[in-house]
């Protein structure tokens, strides 16, 4: 097919985020866990951690976020032709989350919806988004929208990793003429076999995690994706060769904890330094010449390199990334939705006018491992973009209206989840009144493990 006949400007036409209505404060959690003061809040950069009681599972999170998107954006169920789910929170080894979501479409009679679930740690959401966009650009496209949905409940056993949990869901409506366009030909992917974080115990929600290795894998995948992205970008835009990070107006990262993202910006700057000509180094990286013999492989945990490039990139972090960390800081690692919660945070944190016609870099990482760097171009149409962003006005008030729970209660709710994971028959005991309006929740699981969901009342005709 000739490129001129492709649908134009394929990308994200609407985005919806949800997160748990309850959270635990990370300062209180430090005390409760006997960690040194500041370890979770300063060392990891986390303020609050959202969590779900046994009333919510991956199916209910997806039911909630998809319903909200369709209702609030007034999209008819018949207008969806593809629905992809990215998740690593598996409640059934055969039955997909997508098939559960088909309940929402039953009344409309629309069963002609392609797409299923994709799993690889935190990367599944990006796979879902790419699949959705690829469908729109393919010969299979029938002119309808696609939905890319990502949701996870990130929980860790007691110990060092527990404060890096979180939960949430994102749904993205994908189609042509989008306010956020996925730039064609600007995707760089790196996948390899690693045992940095994985879930071999199918009876448990908890992963097996090698924390240090996971950080090394993340940084190494970042290096590789960034260099490949730069190459592809420079081929498309030779006039901007060598500009490196300057080619992005904002940069988003998968965020297991905020501190790693700050270090990642430093890491990209270190890559720019290593890839710079002698002249450029003198001009842009004055005082850092002593690192010219440093290597990527030798520097994952090199404190001198880390500190020097953290300092060097501090302004870039402030200007291009910091605003994207709001939800990660306030809710924690959502796994598959994490990097897209970064997109939402950026959209609500920066005045819309400042983002019009700008390029946003995105780094998505999932352990195991799969990673991509790609870019999104914001539309030139300021009015359309403003309308798109206005739809996210609910996010900050929803964050503010959450209920704080003490670590003792959080810990016992985790034990309830742990004990009853895959129990059948089972009736959850978690509070229903604590949930936000319009939230789907698990009513019960019957003796044959069949799950039934109900919804808390919505406010004003489903417009929350
Ligand atoms: P740890 O090893 O106990 O922590 O757990 P630490 O001792 O390395 O301390 C963390 C930081 O806090 C350090 O900062 C300390 O110095 C600092 P750094 O030196 O590295 O800059 N610190 C303090 N700062 C201020 N005041 C204090 C204080 N004490 C210490 N009092 C670890 C940390 C991340 C390993 C653990 O939480 C973990 O295993 N988390 C899960 C794995 C993870 O998040 N990995 C990230 C990359 S992999 C990824 O992103 C994929 C993932 O999302 C899964 C998926 O793909 O599905 C996880």
Automatic annotation (TrEMBL):
Database matches in CDD domains: init_cond_enzymes
A biological process from GO: farnesyl diphosphate biosynthetic process, mevalonate pathway
Top-level EC class as recorded in UniProt: transferase
Record domain Hydroxymethylglutaryl-coenzyme A synthase N-terminal: where: 6-179
Residues covered by the Hydroxymethylglutaryl-coenzyme A synthase C-terminal domain: 180-455
Residues at the catalytic site: 88 (proton donor/acceptor), 122 (acyl-thioester intermediate), 254 (proton donor/acceptor)
Keyword terms: Lipid biosynthesis, Lipid metabolism, Steroid biosynthesis, Steroid metabolism, Sterol biosynthesis, Sterol metabolism, Transferase
Residues that coordinate or bind CoA: 214, 259, 263
Family: Belongs to the thiolase-like superfamily. HMG-CoA synthase family.
Protein name (database record): Hydroxymethylglutaryl-CoA synthase
């Amino acid at each position: 097919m000739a490129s001129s006949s492709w649908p134009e400007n394929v990308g994200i036409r609407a985005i919806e985020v949800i997160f748990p209505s309850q959270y635990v404060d990370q300062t209180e959690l430090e005390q409760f866990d006997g960690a040194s003061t500041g370890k979770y809040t300063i060392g990891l950069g986390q303020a609050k951690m959202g969590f779900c009681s046994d009333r919510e599972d991956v199916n209910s999170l997806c039911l909630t976020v998809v319903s909200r998107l369709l209702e609030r954006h007034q999209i008819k169920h018949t207008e969806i032709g593809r629905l992809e789910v990215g998740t690593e929170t598996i409640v059934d080894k055969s039955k997909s989350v997508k098939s559960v979501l088909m309940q929402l479409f039953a009344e409309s009679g629309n069963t002609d919806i392609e797409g299923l679930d994709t799993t690889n740690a935190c990367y599944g959401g990006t796979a879902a988004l790419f699949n959705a966009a690829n469908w729109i650009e393919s010969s299979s496209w029938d002119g309808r929208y696609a939905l890319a949905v990502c949701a996870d409940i990130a929980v860790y056993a007691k110990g060092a990793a527990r404060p890096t949990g979180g939960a949430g869901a994102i749904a993205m409506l994908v189609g042509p003429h989008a306010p956020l366009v996925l730039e064609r030909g600007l995707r760089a992917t790196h996948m390899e076999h690693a045992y940095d974080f994985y879930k071999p115990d199918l009876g448990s929600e908890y992963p097996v995690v090698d924390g240090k290795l996971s950080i090394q894998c993340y940084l190494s995948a970042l290096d590789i994706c960034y260099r490949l992205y730069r190459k592809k970008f420079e081929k498309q835009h030779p006039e901007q060769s060598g500009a490196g990070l300057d080619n992005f107006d904002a940069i988003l990262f998968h965020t297991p904890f905020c501190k790693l993202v700050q270090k990642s910006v430093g890491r990209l700057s270190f890559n720019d330094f290593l890839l710079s000509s002698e002249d450029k180094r003198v001009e842009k990286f004055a005082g850092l010449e002593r690192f010219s013999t440093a290597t990527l492989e030798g520097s994952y945990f090199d404190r001198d390199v880390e500190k020097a490039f953290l300092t060097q990139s501090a302004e870039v972090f402030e200007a291009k990334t910091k605003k994207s960390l709001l939800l990660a800081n306030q809710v924690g690692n959502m796994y598959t939705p994490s990097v897209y919660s970064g997109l939402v945070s950026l959209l609500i944190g920066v005045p819309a006018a400042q983002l019009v016609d700008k390029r946003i870099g995105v780094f998505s990482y999932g352990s195991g491992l799969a990673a991509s760097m790609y870019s999104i171009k914001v539309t030139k149409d300021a009015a359309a973009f403003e309308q798109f962003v206005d739809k996210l006005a609910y996010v900050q008030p929803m964050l503010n209206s959450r209920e704080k729970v003490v670590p003792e209660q959080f810990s016992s709710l985790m034990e309830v989840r742990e004990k009853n994971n895959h129990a059948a028959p089972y009736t959850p005991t978690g509070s229903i009144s604590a949930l936000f309006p319009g939230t789907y929740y698990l009513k019960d699981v019957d003796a044959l493990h069949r799950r039934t969901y109900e919804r808390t009342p919505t406010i004003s005709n489903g417009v929350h």
